[in-house]
Design a protein that fits this description.
heterodimer; A: alpha/beta; Rossmann fold; 2 domains; seven-stranded mixed sheet; five-stranded mixed sheet; 12 helices; B: alpha/beta; 14 helices; 7 strands; globular; disordered C terminus
């Protein structure tokens, strides 16, 4: 087994991405993703790679577009307000079927918001990061180890499906330190015969483009892309379930809030409440199949989030009226405590007894 | 009897695809598109060239050329070109942009690509109007120029003044070459081609960021015949946007933009300081190795297959 090292979440993502073969990083300074860019600035020149501090988030994501079309493994990282600025470029990247990794180490919003941890970009990440008919794969790690693991595999998923992939973390996960076992360095990467590398007089020209002036052509392209999305939905859903098998109450929580929910669930079990934790690891595709399966025994659901209630929409869509779905959240950068969540679980449990 | 020997004096450049463009009759885009293709052919770089098309009338340029191409979001072509060039420093990357794209929505990308000294080539079409969207005021529209969105003429008291791009960029240290040309006569077309060729040659030679501004017309949205449009351009645009070379570090006696920048910063101690750490990084990755190292991350690239059918 490889040696464990103590790292911040932001640094673990960066090191893991380099080991996954990423040699191009384009970003713009913003709190609380700071350590990620700083790590890249230090490491990339020594890896023969490129760290480029762009003039803006807008420019950074368009550099990602160019580098991705040119065939490289490439990433950018930012935090909530900066990710909003990237939304245009992400739409073009999706529209041109280009792979890349986008990190969002969320902070409170809307607007300039706060610099404390938040999960209030769930809707943005899973519904509407940019205009047009598109989705991207969104991972929600809850530990530093998972940040490293998902940053590594995200490049493979991006290349496999030719889609942008996001890791949705937050200021708490990004800045806390945990022991982490880093992955082996990639020695082989997939070939990209579609890349705009200069045709070398050896193949027909390649074009990276999202413009279709004939409506039916664009419709056909979107249909094809959504067939790929259907495949992603069928094969890439990820979740973790703790004590869900016999649970009356299922607490659904992702990322940082799942750590708090996990503690609350443990306390509630000690009190004899039959409660489990369902933790989505992919936010898109939402792990609907596994969550739906719990509906055959679960009597109530509770979504715990660091926002005003966003993922709870997806929980309700899956549960589809088969059981009540409640929500508990803190917002603006406030982190809920296990005691608050435990109180909510107790309340729901009392309601079940009636 | 033997046939008279044919002498080919004019043909379509190989890098220009045999397709019908979307340009209006009398538009200068067609001329400049062709000049770029001629230069690509003459330098023998079609297989090494990656183009970036803008949003605007030349948005479909990726269909007009036979080299690899990317379509960029509005104004972002220099950033997109930066991404491509950093992955393929040994390839030739050019962006082609209009005035709204380059000097309005993409001004930040324009200025920063220039000041970073990206070794890319920019062809800039300045016709003082937004063509594709139907004739709105552009950042380069002249004072009192009537457009759809300056119906009483550009009011400088509220809309401000036009941007002179070559003059603006000439203050930046990353820039190697800036020239403003026009294509209203065979003589000027030849001069324009010479400038475009230099802007590409500079990139091949690694000299630095090069931009050629082509003062152009828009007969459709100016509401003029092509010849009247050229007359209006000569009368009104050339006094505001004088033709000429605005920066040429090689002509100034420097090897490249970096050397010219160092000369400019000679009195600044930190700018001129020894930097062993950077020296070490540069020494570990000399130019060629740097290229190979960057591309090692992308196996399969730059290994053109033998016997391609192009």
């Amino acid at each position: 087994m490889a040696e464990k090292v103590l790292m911040k979440g932001n640094e673990a993502i960066a090191e893991s991405a380099i080991r996954a073969g990423c040699r191009f990083f384009f970003g713009y300074p913003i709190t609380p993703q700071t350590e990620l860019a700083a790590y890249m600035a230090k490491r990339m020149p020594k890896e023969g790679g490129t760290y480029l501090q762009a003039e803006s988030e807008v420019a950074a994501i368009n550099m990602v577009y160019g580098a991705s079309a040119a065939g490289a493994r490439v990433m950018t990282s930012s935090s909530s307000p900066g990710v909003s600025l990237k939304s245009e470029g992400v739409s073009y990247i999706a529209g041109a079927d280009l792979p890349c990794l986008i990190i969002n180490i969320e902070r409170g919003g809307p607007g300039l918001g706060s610099i404390q941890p938040s999960q209030s970009d769930y809707w943005q990440a899973t519904r509407a990061l940019g205009h047009g008919d598109f989705q991207m794969v969104v991972y929600a790690p809850s530990t530093v180890q998972e940040m490293a693991d998902l940053a590594y595999s995200a490049f493979d998923i991006a290349d496999k499906y030719r889609t942008p992939v996001m890791i949705l973390g937050d200021g708490m996960l990004g800045q806390m330190m945990e022991p982490v076992e880093l992955p082996e360095r990639r020695t082989e990467l997939p070939e990209k015969p579609w890349a705009t590398t200069g045709h070398g007089n050896a193949r027909p020209k390649n074009v990276a483009n999202s413009l279709y002036l004939v409506a039916e052509e664009l419709e056909r392209t979107n249909f094809e892309r959504f067939e790929r999305y259907a495949q992603i939905k069928a094969t890439e859903q990820m979740c973790e379930q703790v004590d869900c098998d016999d649970a009356d109450i299922i607490v659904v929580a992702f990322g940082a809030s799942s750590r708090i929910a996990r503690t609350a669930v443990r306390y509630a079990r000690e009190e004899g409440i039959k409660v489990g934790l369902f933790r989505p690891i992919t936010l898109w595709p939402f792990p609907a199949d596994a969550l739906s399966a719990t509906c055959d025994h679960a009597k109530a659901f509770l979504s715990v989030e660091m926002n005003m209630g966003q993922m709870v929409d997806d929980v309700r869509l899956v549960v589809n009226g088969r059981a009540p779905v409640d929500f508990y959240g803190r917002t603006g950068g406030v982190i809920p405590t296990p005691a608050e969540v435990l109180d909510k679980i107790r309340q729901i449990n009392e309601g079940l007894g009636e | 009897m033997a046939q008279a020997e044919e002498k080919l004096v004019y043909e379509r450049p190989h890098s220009l695809a045999p397709v019908v463009t979307n340009y209006c009759p009398g538009c200068t885009h067609g001329i400049v598109n062709r000049l770029v293709a001629e230069v690509i052919d003459e330098l023998g770089i079609e297989g090494d060239t990656i183009g970036v098309s803008p949003v605007g009338c030349s948005v479909m340029m990726y269909n007009f050329y036979n080299c690899d191409f990317l379509e960029a979001a509005h104004g972002r072509a220099p950033a997109v070109a930066t991404g491509v060039k950093r992955v393929h420093p040994d390839k030739v990357v050019f962006a082609y942009q209009g005035d709204g794209d380059l000097a309005s929505i993409g001004m930040a990308e324009t200025v920063h690509a220039a000041t970073r000294g990206e070794k890319i080539t920019i062809i800039f079409i300045n016709n003082a109007i937004y063509g594709m969207t139907g004739g709105q005021m552009a950042p380069t529209s002249l004072p009192n120029q009537v457009t759809q969105t300056s119906p009483y003429g550009r009011d400088v008291t509220t809309a401000g003044y036009p941007v002179r791009v070559c003059e603006l960029l000439s203050s930046l240290d990353g820039v190697a070459y800036l020239e403003r040309v026009c294509v209203d006569s065979p003589k000027n077309i030849r001069k324009a081609k010479k400038a475009i060729k230099k802007a590409f040659q500079n990139q091949v030679d690694g000299i630095g960021y090069s931009l050629v501004e082509v003062v152009s017309t828009c007969p459709t949205n100016w509401g003029m015949t092509p010849t009247d449009a050229f007359e209006w351009m000569r009368e009104n645009m050339l006094p505001y946007y004088p033709l000429g070379v605005y920066r040429d570090v090689v002509a100034e006696g420097y090897a490249n933009a970096a050397e010219a920048a160092a000369a400019r910063a000679a009195a600044c101690p930190i700018a001129m300081a020894e930097n062993p750490q950077l020296d070490e990084i540069h020494a570990a990755l000399p130019s060629k190795a740097k290229v190979e190292a960057a591309q090692a991350a992308v196996p399969g690239l730059n290994t053109p297959k033998e016997g391609g059918d192009r």
